[in-house]
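Standup notes
- DV: blocked on the single-chain target, sequence here:
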Amino acid sequence: MKFLEKYGIKIKDEKMLITALTHTSYSNEHNCESYERLEYLGDAVLELITSEYFYLNTDSKEGAMTKLRARYVCERANYEYAKVVGFIPYIRLGNGQIHNLNETIVADVFEAILGVIFLECGYEVSKKYVLEVITPFIEEDRVFYSDYKSLLQEMMQMSKKTLEYRLVREDGPAHDRSYIFEVVVDDIVYGRGSGKSKKEAEQNAAKDAYTKAAKK
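- DV (later): unblocked, structure below
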């Protein structure tokens, strides 16, 4: 596992790095720790680094910086970063998950690995690593997803309609849940979407509703 060496990073605690690559399906089968705690830490570090970057490199107001950060700190973005770093083949999955390595898991592992780097090497090394990975995407103005929830909210506010997201169904085991949400406007279903997380399902439902509403 030398995928971090191209960034000048050598992790001494290989056990911790292996933990960062371990999904809950594997940890449940082998009685070991999963990446979840490291992901929690890495998520906070990633948000801080990108927040600092946009503060120092733009003159945008708070709301604009928040939207910018959301573009580059999201599941789809983390998945693309993971492909650049090159750790995907090393992710450990349980037998029940082995054929379902999805974007959510890969994105979570990206954050977990950042958590390891932060604990071993500190903030400055973590920042150098993150910016080396994500700055090319920022400079090319890559759009990973559109915030359809915000777009839909703005549209409904203009017409003074009430908007809510209703969970229709959730399926699968705890380590591999899927969700279906409906967008309801004034008690009328405007759209529906599914996803591996509630956030993703809500975004897809909002996209469906916004696309339909924009055509009217």
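- Follow-up: The longest helix spans residues 36-57.
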